[in-house]
Amino acid sequence: MSTALHGGVLVIAVAAREARVVAALGRRALSVQFRRAQLLMPTFVLPLLLLAVIASGTSAGRNLKDFPDVSSYLGFVVAGTLLQGALLAGLTAGIALASDIEGGFFDRLLAAPVRRSSLVFGRLAGTLGLAVLQMTWFLLVALLFGASYPGGVLGAAGAAVLAALTAVGIGGLACAIAIRTGSMNLMQSIFPLVFVLLFTAPAFFPRDLLTPTLHDLSAYNPLTYVVEGARGLLQDDAGLGDPWLGLAAAVGLAIFSTALATLALRDRARRT
Amino acid sequence: MSSRTNSPAGPVAWAFWMRSLGEVTRVRGALIGTSIAPLIFLLGTSGQFGKLVGLPGFPTDSYLSWIVPLCCLQGAGFAGAAAGANLARDIEQGWFDRLLVAPVARPLLVLGPVLGAITRSMIPVTLVLVVGVLIGADVTGGVGGIVALYAASAGFCTVAALWGIAMAVHFRTQQAGPLMQMGVFLGVFLSTAYTPQPLLKGWLEDVARINPVSHVLELGRQATVSGIDASLAHTWPGLASLAGMGLVFGALALFGLRRMGR
Questions:
Q1: How far B146 CA lies from chain A's nearest CA (Å)?
Q2: Read out DSSP for B21-84?
Q3: pLDDT digits (tens, 9 = 90+) for B141-187
Q4: Mean pLDDT per 10-residue interval, chain A, length 272 residues
Q5: Of A163, A209, A235, B259, which is most buried by a Cβ count within 10 Å?
Q6: What is the pTM of this model?
Q7: CB-based contact B249:B166 (threshold 8 Å)
Q8: Environment class of B172 (CB within 10 Å of its CB; exposed 0-12, middle 13-18, buried 19+)
Q9: Distance (Å, whole) CA A260 – CA A72
Q10: How many other β-carbons are positioned within 10 Å of the β-carbon of residue A25?
Q11: Is A189 on the interface with B (CB under 8 A)?
């Protein structure tokens, strides 16, 4: 009995220590990114610029026959902005990690007496924090410029959670690539590829109005279910997307990519 | 003064042009980003907004044809902005200081990178055009239209390069890179990028009307948009806009260059 109790206490102590490591690394990841504002500008400004241009440039699309009846076009396309923000936040995590690898800081972390997976979780905790700030910022700015969210505060919070979890998923993929290659240049050059994920999902237009090829392709992109789920929550209309399906896609992607990054880290540790 | 500028202009401009082109072979993957990004944008945007051609007043029934010139301009613009980023790197690393004390006219220091950028921009422009046509864009303007599209792209690349160089000589740091790209991004997208002027709504309707890039797009769209026929009426506004923007940003670049080293 006392052995089992002792084992339980030990597990809790180890978990608490690792949680402190994850929190510290997450705080560091966030503060480093805020220190280098040039890295953050694209993630906070670029999606809003694209939102402004798309909302004004394509709003005539509401007159198309199959366009769903929504209270505001801006409120409809802002879900695509959340998705774009998630992609950029995730990519930023990979670039920052590659910078740590190139600068030698990551090797010092590898020599520290902590679990390898905590190094990945710490980085992704920073991504989660960044994404929450981003999503709040996007939703507030869009609200100020006339977007309406019939789903209310709960709907907006739910959409932000979906997008933030997606940022973690994309961050995991970016970290896996960064750990495998250790190259900041390569991470920066995959920036355009991020838009492949964005454009193969119905980010700014309803799925039924995509061209037939893209319509078929989008069914295989997990981000399709995230953006539709976020749209359903913001517009309080399950016909626009199923939030639970969106949550399953976001969580699934996060688990898969975190495992990928952890495996890449183990492999790197073996090699170095 | 004459002793400072006694090198023959032609060979000097040629040497700077070739040096600028050398970036393509020296920096691995230098062209990948500027070539792939407009292609992804072409495929993604035409897939997302393709049904917009069903709206009354849209001048073509192929959104791909509408978007090809935009993506050509985007690729050319980013190739131009890269000239500014490369110059900023040369300034930071001290190489440009050596050029400033060379006995050559200062405008030649700008001319070489601009010519290099125009040459490099032909790769993404041609790639976008070829892929666009292969997947269904129409070439309604014939040879004249294609010439107009290449003229619009080369002209916009020049404007973007002069803008980038003006930023580089003003800030003298590579950290101004996002500012150079942002200028191109805003110029292109605050125009009739997605839909024609009559279908724009709200603030963008007014901004696109006064944005000279809208005229440059019209110049390029003579190649692929059936509703914009190849004619002087669709050509002169674009050429005049390019000349105006070139003069403004060229003057800014030369002014900044003159202040350097004082």
A1: 26
A2: HHHHHHSTTHHHHHHHHHHHHHHHHHHHHGGGGGSTT-S-S-HHHHHHHHHHHHHHHHHHHHHH
A3: 999 999 999 999 999 999 999 999 999 999 887 777 778 888 898 89
A4: 74 84 88 74 85 88 88 92 94 87 86 85 93 96 94 96 96 93 76 82 92 92 96 94 97 96 89 74
A5: A163
A6: 0.81
A7: yes
A8: middle
A9: 39
A10: 21
A11: yes
Q: Between A and B, how many CB-CB pairs are < 8 A?
A: 97
Q: Out of B40, B52, B193, whose CB is closest to A61?
A: B52
A208 touches B at CB < 8 Å? no
Write out pLDDT tens, residues B47-77.
Answer: 889 999 999 889 999 999 999 999 999 999 9
CA angle A185, A186, A188 (to 5 degrees): 65
Contact: A199, B203; criterion CB under 8 Å: no
**Residue among A116, A101, A126 at smallest CA distance from A35:** A126
**Contact in structure between B145 and B235 (CB atoms under 8 Å):** no
Residue of A46, A50, A53 to mutate for B, most B C-beta atoms under 10 A: A53
Q: Indicate the residue type of B218.
A: E
Q: What letter does residue A15 receive in the DSSP assignment?
A: H
Which of B198, B193, B200 has its CA nearest to residue B216?
B193
Among candidates B47, B195, B202 on the partner chain, residue whose Cβ is nearest the Cβ of A213: B47
Helix axes A37-57, A116-144, angle to 10 degrees: 40
- With contact defined as beta carbons under 8 Å apart, do A229 and A213 qualify? no
Q: The complex's ipTM?
A: 0.75
| DSSP secondary structure code for residue A72 in this structure | -
- CB count within 10 Å of CB A77 equals 23
**What type of residue sits at position A33?**
Q
Helices A37-57 and A73-103 sit at what angle, rounded to 10 degrees?
160
Q: A77 to chain B: nearest residue by CA?
A: B48
CB of B31 closer than 8 Å to CB of B24:
yes
A257: Cβ contacts below 8 Å, ≥ 6 apart: A168, A169, A170, A171, A172, A173, A175, A176
Domain ranges in chain B are: 2-259
Cβ of A56 and B205 within 8 Å?
A: yes
Distance CA A22, CA A122 (A): 4
Provide the sign of the torsion angle of the four alpha carbons B161, B167, B172, B174, taken in this order.
negative
Is residue A3 within 8 angstroms of chain B, CB to CB? no
Among candidates B175, B189, B205 on the partner chain, residue whose Cβ is nearest the Cβ of A38: B175
| Interchain contact, A42 vs B178, CB within 8 Å | yes
Across the interface, whether the CB atoms of B37 and A200 are under 8 A apart is answered no
A contacts of B205 (beta carbons < 8 Å): 56
Contact of A199 with chain B, judged by CB distance below 8 Å, is answered with yes
Chain A 52-81, CB below 8 Å of chain B: which residues? Answer: 52-54, 56-61, 63-65
